[in-house]
C-alpha cells in the first residue's frame, strides 16, 4: 500500500479529503489533508529500528508537547500514521535563528519542553544518549558494508573523548532533533514539531544541536548558554557544551550515512552527509581548542 493509500484509508475524514504532499520530510512521508471539517498534517512512517525510532514514543511525546502548549494537537493515530492539527505558518530556516528575537523565542520554547513536558508524559519513555546512538550507527554502517566504514575507527575514538569531556549531566526531556524546519511560526508564536527522537537527555544536546544545525556564532552561543542557565558560562560548562555540540553534529552526519544505505526517500543524503561532516569537523576543532 502506498503512503497516499494509507492516508486515504484513515477512518477520520468527513467528506472526500483533498491530499497534498508536504515537502521537507527526510525520515517520514508527510501530507496536508483538507476534508469538510478541518485541515491537518498526516505523518506516514513505521518504526525505524536503525534510527531507534519507535512510534509509540513519538505519539506520547507529541501528546505531552501539546499538553505543554508546545506542539499542535494529535487528532488521530494508528500503526504507521499520526495525524496532527495543521498550523498555518512559516517553517523556519537556519538564517532565521541569527535574529536575536527568533533565537530567544526558540530557546524559550525548548526550555519549556525540557521543564514542562515530563508532567504530561504517559507510559514508557526512552532515553536518548547520543554516544550510544553513535556506537549503534557505527555497527549498522559496518553491517551494511557502508563506504564510510574506513572512517569509523577515528570517529568512534573521537566520540569517546567527547563523551568523557561531557561529564555528569542533568536529565531533561529533550526534543533531540532541533533542525530549523522543526520550528514553525504562525505570526504570533512559535511551535516545535516532530518528536521522532524525543527522550530524556542532557539539555546540552538540544542546545548544541540548535547551534550546530543553525550555524550560530560564538557570541550567539554565549548568549544562549547564559539565558538557559541564567548565568555566564564558565570554562567547565563551555567544555561540556562544545563536546556535546560536536557529538550532535557527528550524530547528524552518521544518521545521514545510515540513510544512504537504508532510506528509500528521494533525498540527496550523500550531500547531506558531506555538509554535516564539515559541521562536525569544525565543532570538533572548536572543542579541541578549548
From TrEMBL:
Keywords, alphabetical: Transferase
GO biological process: phosphatidylethanolamine biosynthetic process
Highest taxon in the source lineage: Bacteria
UniProt domain Aminoglycoside phosphotransferase: residue ranges: 18-237
Transferase listed as a keyword: yes
Pfam families: APH (PF01636)
Gene Ontology CC: cytoplasm
GO molecular function terms listed in the Swiss-Prot or TrEMBL record: ethanolamine kinase activity
Gene3D superfamilies: 3.90.1200.10, Phosphorylase Kinase, domain 1
Transmembrane helix recorded as keyword: no
Family matches, as PANTHER family: CHOLINE/ETHANOALAMINE KINASE (PTHR22603), ETHANOLAMINE KINASE (PTHR22603:SF66)
Protein's name in the database: Phosphotransferase family protein
